[in-house]
Amino acid sequence: MAHIGIFDSGCGGLSVLRELLKAAPGEHYTYFSDNANCPYGEKSSEFIIRRSTEISSHLIELGADIIVIACNTATAAAIASLRRRWPGLPFIGMEPAIKPAALMSRNKVVGVLATSSTLKADKYLDNKKIWASDVKIAEHAGEGFVELVESLELSGAHCEQTVRRSLEPLLEAGADTIVLGCTHYPFLLETMRAIAGPRVNFIDPAPAVARQLIHIMAEKNLPLSPKGEGKVDLECSGNPQTARKLLELALNLA
Ligand code: DGL
Fold this sequence. Notes:
globular; binds D-glutamic acid
């Protein structure tokens, strides 16, 4: 059975784990939520690199064969440094799905919701140049979104108001396709859909990450294990309660 380490600044990466469990349900997953240090969105890259290195080192000690960085912000800041440090170990990262969004958009206006540090990252800026030269991109940080998810406030008036504030500028710009560039945001999808209406498509890159996992397992000769053998261990640097509840939610949706 393959051992997959997966981490995020908090519980957002559980939206990725949910997809990994659909694609490869028989593996051993250790999910690490760095919720004592969440959010990463406003932290320095030095800090994010340090935490990503410490967490990866811990997951490797536990026996991880593959590490999934289920966080756009940590991928942008730290994946290059992690790959340099552990050249033999596959790291799978997350980045805003600009390319499929540009292809999917009918009116060629794409919205991107991500943390402000992801929106400033070189990798994201390069991807925009390569894949979005013929589309208009409207961007906004999901202000307060991570905090909503970490406090399990996934509906209600305050949640709706917070989501509306960051989503509306993208809708006003005419976006018909919106990329979810932070792994916390899929937990707010119902609220976003209610605000945006049926005309707008949201793109979550997690299914593409699950396909990448299957591809890397095949490359590394790690056979898929039978469904019944799978297990998930949950570790948190802070209070584990929210992660446990969201994991239950994510598993029920899987
Ligand atoms: N879930 C994260 C991401 O995908 C990080 C959010 C945060 O900690 O600011 O970017």
